[in-house]
C-alpha cells in the first residue's frame, strides 16, 4: 500500500516520493551537484589575493574583505592580515558546501568576510566541479587546491 503511495524512487538512494517532480528535485539537489565550494581549494596565502581592478599593476585585493595591498607584495603584512583578521586555514578543510550562499555564510561567520566584488573572485577560486555520481552511489569528487582563482552541506 505504501509503495503505491510513493511510486517514484531515487536512482541513487532508497528514498521514494509521491510524485515525479519531488523525486527529480531530490536527485538534483542531493545527488547531481555540479559544483562545490571549500576553503581547501585555496593553496597558500597568495590565492587569497587578486589584482585590483582600478590599479592592477600597483595593488592587490584581499578576497575576504576587499582591503587593498600594494605590490610588490609585503608577505609578512599580508599573512598577518589573513591569519588575524580572517583565521586563514583554521576552518575544517574537508568541509564542502554545495550551495554558494552557504559558502558565503561560512566566509562571513568563520572568516569575517564581507560581501563585495572581491568575494566573487574568492568564491570562484574556491569552486570545484563535482564528478557526476554513478547510479546507486553517493556524492562526487572535487579537485585539489587552486593557485589563483571543497563533506557536508550547510554553514558554520
| Computed CA radius of gyration, to the nearest angstrom | 19 Å
The largest sheet has its strands arranged as 4-5-6
Main beta sheet: 3 strands, antiparallel
Helical percentage = 25-40%
- Which class best fits the helix and strand makeup? alpha+beta
**Element-level helix/strand string:** HEEHEEEEHHHE
> Count the strands?
7
What is the straight-line distance between the termini? 41 Å
Name the overall outline: elongated
Total count of helical runs of at least 4 residues: 5
How much beta, percentage-wise?
Answer: 5-15%
> For the residues shown, what is the average pLDDT?
84
Unreliable stretches: 137-142, 147-156
Put the structure in a nutshell.
This protein is α+β, with helices and mostly antiparallel strands and 156 residues long. Helices cover 31% and strands 13% of the residues.
Task: Report on this structure.
Keywords: Metal-binding, Zinc, Zinc-finger. InterPro entries: Znf_C2H2_type. Residues 134-156 are annotated as: Disordered. By secondary structure, the protein is an alpha+beta fold. Helices cover 31% and strands 13% of the residues. It has helices at 2-5, 20-31, 75-85, 100-111, 117-126; strands at 8-9, 16-17, 35-37, 49-51, 59-62, 68-70, 127-129.
Could you name the key traits of this structure?
156 residues; alpha+beta; three-stranded antiparallel sheet; two-stranded antiparallel ribbon; disordered C terminus; Znf_C2H2_type; C2H2-type domain-containing protein
Amino acid at each position: 500500500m505504501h509503495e503505491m503511495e510513493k511510486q517514484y524512487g531515487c536512482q541513487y538512494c532508497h528514498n521514494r516520493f509521491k510524485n515525479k517532480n519531488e523525486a527529480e528535485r531530490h536527485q538534483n539537489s542531493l545527488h547531481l551537484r555540479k559544483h562545490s565550494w571549500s576553503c581547501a581549494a585555496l593553496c597558500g596565502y597568495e590565492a587569497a589575493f587578486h589584482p585590483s581592478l582600478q590599479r592592477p599593476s600597483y595593488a592587490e585585493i584581499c578576497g575576504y574583505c576587499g582591503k587593498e595591498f600594494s605590490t610588490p607584495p609585503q608577505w609578512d603584512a599580508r599573512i598577518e592580515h589573513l591569519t588575524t583578521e580572517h583565521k586563514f586555514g583554521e576552518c575544517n578543510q574537508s568541509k564542502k558546501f554545495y550551495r554558494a550562499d552557504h559558502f558565503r555564510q561560512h566566509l562571513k561567520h568563520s572568516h569575517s568576510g564581507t560581501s563585495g566584488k572581491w568575494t566573487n573572485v574568492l568564491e570562484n577560486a574556491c569552486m570545484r566541479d563535482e564528478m557526476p555520481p554513478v547510479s546507486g552511489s553517493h556524492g562526487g569528487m572535487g579537485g585539489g587546491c587552486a593557485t589563483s582563482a571543497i563533506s557536508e552541506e550547510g554553514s558554520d
